[in-house]
Amino acid sequence: MNAKVWLVGAGPGDPELLTLKAVRALREAEVVMMDDLVNPAVLEHCPQARVIRVGKRGGCRSTPQAFIQRLMLRHARQGRCVVRLKGGDPCIFGRGGEEADWLAERGVEVELVNGITAGLAGATRCGIPLTLRGVSRGVTLVTAHTQDDSELNWQGLAQSGMTLVVYMGVARLKAIQQGLLAGGMDVDMPVAMIENASLPGQRECRSQLGRMDVDAAGFELKSPAILVIGEVAGVASNVLGLNEQGLQAISCKS
Fold first, then answer.
1. Of 33, 34, 168, 212, which is the active-site residue?
2. Which CATH fold topology does 4-113 show?
3. Full-prediction pTM beyond 0.85?
4. I want to staple 154 with a disulfide (CB 3.0 to 4.6 A). Which of 14, 124, 164, 183 is the partner?
């Protein structure tokens, strides 16, 4: 398996959520280029590989994307099997699609390996089903951080009736709140703010749309975190029996 780049999703943090296909790619890798949010524990599957840390994290100093792409290309053209190891899923706000296209245009074989995304894993561990018969017929994944700083169609999202899972929203809580309220979403809409999804230190704050910014400040919510906004976020956190795992949870409802 030479001269190939695998774009691998390492999942949200819990190393047991790594897929078998991801493990196989890591075992055969000669070079692993790892993002900041990947749990270092997954490296036990690639003791033979050279590990290059290419951190990319919102609000922090990051390795330039162009440099990462050139580095992948250089190692692949030297005949090495390269794994680009990303947190979550490479195609859910992970630039997997653009990296795959860029490498393919330069004649490099690419394979994408899905990983469990933080929005799914974090919600499940809090006992929140993102879809629930009679409550939510669908889920919409959005990012609050866009390359051109444009705003999402908050009105459309507010009136969709879908569960919203917002990534990279901690720094824009007030804007998210104002956009959804202006779009017609109810002030009492349940919200769950989930920090460090699937990790031992995962924390959650249950709130409502009208006061989530205040509650987040009191909770000292920090990145990485996801927001679950919708009726399903009002489901009791012990529904799936997951609080026995030691999850730190707080209800901020008045």
1. 168
2. Cobalt-precorrin-4 Transmethylase; domain 1 (3.40.1010)
3. yes
4. 183
